[in-house]
Amino acid sequence: MDELRAATRQSTARTGIIAFDGARGTVSIPCTICDVSGTGARLKLDWSLSFPKEATLIFADGLRKACRVAWQKRRLLGVAFADGVASPNEQALMMTEEEQLLHRRHIGAQVRGAREARGYTESQIANLLNVSPEFVSRAERGETSIPLHQLTHIADLLLVDLDRLIAGPASIGLPHESDVELVAQ
Predict the structure, then answer these.
(1) Which residue from 99, 122, 130, 180 has the highest number of Cβ atoms inside 10 Å of its Cβ?
(2) Residues 75, 64, 81, 137: is their CA dihedral positive or negative?
(3) Element (H, E) at 166
(4) pLDDT value at position 1?
(5) How far apart are CA 97 and CA 127, in angstroms?
(6) pLDDT tens, 97-135?
(7) Using 50, 70 and 90 to split pLDDT, how confident is the model at 184?
(8) At what angle do helices 97-117 and 133-140 cross, to 10 degrees?
(9) Which residues are within 8 A (CB) of 2 and not within 5 positions of it... i.e. 6 or more apart?
(10) What count of Cα atoms within 13 Å lies in the side-chain half-sphere of residue 181?
(11) Is the CB of residue 124 less than 8 Å from the CB of residue 105?
């Protein structure tokens, strides 16, 4: 759970709505979407009451994603998309190209760090994944996306949680959480 809280904080500050079924019908709460990835988002709410385990996140452009609450700390909420990883088309609606690049770079840096910590070379990992060393190199630099099935395989090979590869501690050169706080205000 702590690894989800340490997700890369990109300087996004989009408005959205989080909706859920309440005692008197649907409750809709405005929120600021501070971080979004293919698997979930971090939200700031103007709501301090208890929150249900499931809700729908509605982006400003109308995209709706069913979510499960991963964690809540006062008015901050971490949600995971209930249907798993968002499709590339959904991700394009949720994140700008620059944000997608930052996310790919973060995942690539996490993979590189885990690979180096275990003493593997790019060529060795490429052989184990049945891909080219060039693909591994480009993926670690964030130039190409790593498919989820390969990320799962990499996590297994390197003995790390998949969550750590996707939402582990922020990499050098990416905005810090406090930077996002300033942008969102």
Answers:
(1) 180
(2) negative
(3) helix 162-167
(4) 38
(5) 30
(6) 777 788 789 889 999 999 999 999 999 999 999 999 999
(7) very low
(8) 120
(9) none
(10) 5
(11) no
Q: Which residues of 50-60 are buried (b: 16+ CB within 10 A; e: fewer)?
A: ebeeebbbbbe
Superfamily of domain 2-81 in the CATH hierarchy: predicted glycosyltransferase like domains (2.40.10.220)
Residue-level pLDDT at 138: 95
> In the CATH scheme, what architecture does the domain 95-180 have?
Orthogonal Bundle (1.10)
- pTM for this prediction: 0.53
Residue 122's nearest CA partner among 103, 106, 141 is 141
Instruction: Identify each DSSP E strand in 37-175 by its residue range.
Output: 40-45, 54-59, 64-73, 76-81
Q: For the chain, what are the domain ranges? A: 2-81, 95-180
